[in-house]
Amino acid sequence: MREKPVxxxxxxxxxxxxxxxxxxxxxxxxxxxxxxxxxVCESGEVAYDESKFADKVFIERIEKESDLTEAxxxxxxxxxxxxxxxxxxxxxxxxxxxxxxxxxxxxxAQEMTFFDATMxxxxxxxxxxxxxxxxxxxxxxxxxRFKKDNDKLPFHKEVRVANRRSxxxxxxxxxxxxxxxxxxxxxxDKKASTVEVADDMYADWxxxxxxxxxxxxxxxxxxxGRVVKGGDMxxxxxxxxxxxxxxxxxxxxxxxxxxxxxxxxxxxxxAWVQIKAKVRIEFxxxxxxxxxxxxxxxxxxxxxxxxxxxxx
Length: 312
Hints:
This protein has two domains: 4-179, P-loop containing nucleotide triphosphate hydrolases (Rossmann fold); 194-311, CATH 2.40.50.140. The protein contains eight helices and 15 strands. The chain has helices at 17-25, 28-31, 70-77, 95-101, 120-126, 128-135, 153-162, 202-211; strands at 4-11, 36-40, 57-61, 84-88, 106-116, 140-144, 167-173, 176-179, 194-196, 220-228, 237-245, 253-260, 272-284, 289-301, 310-311. The chain is elongated.
C-alpha cells in the first residue's frame, strides 16, 4: 500500500492555520497536479475559498475528537484517490489522538504549529500541556502578530524546552517575517576536560548528553543525583539520575543513566550522591542501543538538590 504524506497544521483558533493552508493550496508549485484531502478538525476564523485552490482538494470535516477514529479516517480515505493529506488540527486536541488513529499508510511528512504571539504567554500559562504538545514534534513554529519591539528570547526558550530542532519564525505582517537565529548556549562548559554540572543545570545536561553523546565520550563529569538499584542490574551497576519535568507535573519522570561503581551497595536505594565519573559510550541492554555510561571514580553522599525536581 503506497504511503500518503500527511502535512499537519496545529495551533489554537485564530493562530493563522487556515490562512496558511489557503495560501499553500493556492500555490501551483505546491500542488503539481496532486489530489489532496484537507481534513478540517476546527472551524477557523477564515473560510476556505475553494475556487482559488490550484489543484483538486477534497474537504472533510471532523467536529468531535471522539469521531477521530481509525475507522472514520479509513472510511474517508477510501472515498478518494489521494496523493496527500493536509490536516487542520483542533488546538484543544492532543496530537496523540491523530497519531494513534491514522490509517497505516498515512505518514507524517511535516508538522507545523502556529501561535498568536499576543496570546502565547496566556495560553502557555493556562494550557501548558496543550502548548507543549503542539511544539514538541513541530519542524516549524510560527509566532504570528509578533511586534517588532517584542523580546524574542522568552518565546525561543519555551520552544526549545519542547523541541531543540524546530525552526522558529516570527511574523510581523504579510510578507514580513524573521527567522529565529538565537544561539542556544549551554549553562556549563561542555568543552572542559572535566564537566561540572550545577544543580540547576541537570535538565540541560541530561538532554544534551543524550542528543550529543560523542561530545562526552571519555570526558570526566561531576554531578549530583540519586541512586536507583534493583531489577536486573548486575553487581556494581545502578541507575543515576533525577526526577525531571519537561512540561508540567503530570509528565515528571526519572531521567537516569547507567552508572558503574564497585561499592554502590554502600548506598541506600534513593540516596542523594555526588559522583565523579568518566563517560563511555557503550551498548546497554536497558537503552536498547549505544548510550552514555558513567564509570564512577568516586561516589559521595550529599544533600538533596534544591529543588529536587529538575526543570529547564
